[in-house]
Write a structure and sequence with these properties.
Blueprint lengths: L2 H6 L7 H16 L17 H21 L2 H14 L10 H19 L5 H10 L2 H10 L5 H14 L9 H14 L6 H18 L4 H12 L1
Helix pairs in contact: 2-3, 2-6, 2-8, 3-7, 3-11, 4-5, 5-9, 9-10
Length: 224
């Protein structure tokens, strides 16, 4: 799941450090794709209360992602999206399965915003209110030595406020193309982008009818 979908499950928490933890795995991976943190291996070193709150959020992120990626909902919709977009990507280096996965996650974020089930400003407020020193400690305990690079990315993420852009369905394809451009030098032609945008806007409309299934399902898992 993406940032806003993860935040959905902790939108009512009063601890901004837990909120930070729920989205931190994605922040770390976006800051540098070769960074792989395994906090459970260093859990005995994480003793501060703020750092432990970050770890709590991190663990909740992993539970949510594990259930989501193994759910019938995820399998059904990524297969459907992949089937729909594969012909358009026939002469592109972009893998249809990769794009289907990311598209579904961004569409879910978008629907949460348009259905007013989540407040992106509240997520940003929690991230700004989290303990910066605790975050620095958490990263160093988990062998991230270039913390200035992370915090430069983190500050840019907070300043950009780009998650608000998911309210407009045409921005979904813009976000997907931007992600692909980080991996491939020339991922898609302008024609392919337009064709994919049309397919995904249509899928987005249909997804609005059933999207809550997966959120209700995961919420029950977290409550147990």
């Amino acid at each position: 799941m993406n940032f806003l979908s993860h935040f959905y499950f902790d939108r009512q928490t009063s601890d901004p450090n837990i909120v930070l933890g729920t989205v931190l795995p994605d922040l770390v991976k976006n800051a540098r794709k070769d960074w792989n943190l395994h906090p459970h291996k260093n859990e005995h070193l994480i003793t501060g209360s703020f750092e432990q709150a970050i770890l709590t959020g991190w663990k909740r992120h992993l539970i949510v992602d594990r259930h989501f990626h193994n759910s019938g909902f995820f399998i059904k919709h990524t297969n459907s999206i992949r089937t729909a977009i594969a012909p358009v990507l026939e002469h592109s280096p972009v893998r249809p399965s990769f794009l289907a996965h990311i598209a579904l996650e961004i569409m879910l974020d978008s629907i949460l915003l348009t259905e007013k089930l989540i407040d992106a400003d509240l997520l940003y407020s929690n991230l700004r209110g989290s303990n910066r020193q605790a975050l620095h400690n958490f990263l160093e305990l988990n062998k991230i030595d270039d913390t200035p690079h992370f915090f430069k990315f983190f500050d840019q993420f907070l300043e950009a406020n780009y998650l608000h852009s998911y309210r407009e369905t045409h921005n979904i394809m813009f976000a997907l193309n931007r992600i692909c451009m980080r991996i491939w030098p020339d991922p898609m032609s302008e024609t392919q982008v337009l064709q994919l945008s049309s397919i995904l806007i249509s899928y987005h409309e249909n997804l609005q009818k059933c999207f809550m299934e997966i959120f209700d399902e995961i919420e029950k898992v977290l409550d147990n």
